[in-house]
UniProtKB/TrEMBL annotation:
Gene3D superfamilies: Winged helix-like DNA-binding domain superfamily/Winged helix DNA-binding domain
Pfam families: HTH_5 (PF01022)
Residues annotated as signal peptide: none
Residues in HTH arsR-type domain copies: 1-88
Organism of this sequence: Mucilaginibacter hurinus
Name the record gives this protein: Transcriptional regulator
NCBIfam families attached to this UniProt entry: HTH_metalloreg
GO molecular function, one term: DNA-binding transcription factor activity
Length: 115
């Protein structure tokens, strides 16, 4: 089954694994030791991350190390960009509206002060 990046980051455990190994590669046992779930469950998360291309597991002697491949997160960033533009536009329009209201209130206050 082909998994995508969005499936990988949908789970908080997988996001935490990515966070842990983003700074430096860690061996599989170290990763598994940081969670209060079974090693089997952690291995399943690692498998999904590997299938999505977000991590690569390399063998070094008897140890297996997980390395982050965060380039794949660009897909998520690109998808989010469209919503960022949408909300920035909405917030800009809100700011203009609020300034207009404030300006009207200031003008009304000045008119009332004259009388």
């Amino acid at each position: 089954m082909r998994r995508d990046t969005f499936q990988a980051i949908a789970d908080p455990t997988r996001r935490e694994i990515l966070n842990m190994i983003s700074a430096q590669p860690l061996n599989v046992n170290t990763v598994a030791g940081n969670f209060e779930i079974s090693r089997t469950a952690v291995y399943k998360h690692l498998k999904i991350l590997t299938e999505c291309g977000l991590i690569k597991v390399k063998q070094h002697g008897r140890e297996r190390y997980c390395e982050a491949r965060l380039e794949k997160l660009a897909e998520v960033a690109d998808w989010l960009e469209q919503y960022k533009k949408f909300w920035n536009s909405k917030l800009d329009n809100l700011e203009i509206y609020l300034k207009d209201i404030q300006s009207e209130e200031d003008n009304n206050d000045r008119r009332h002060q004259r009388y």
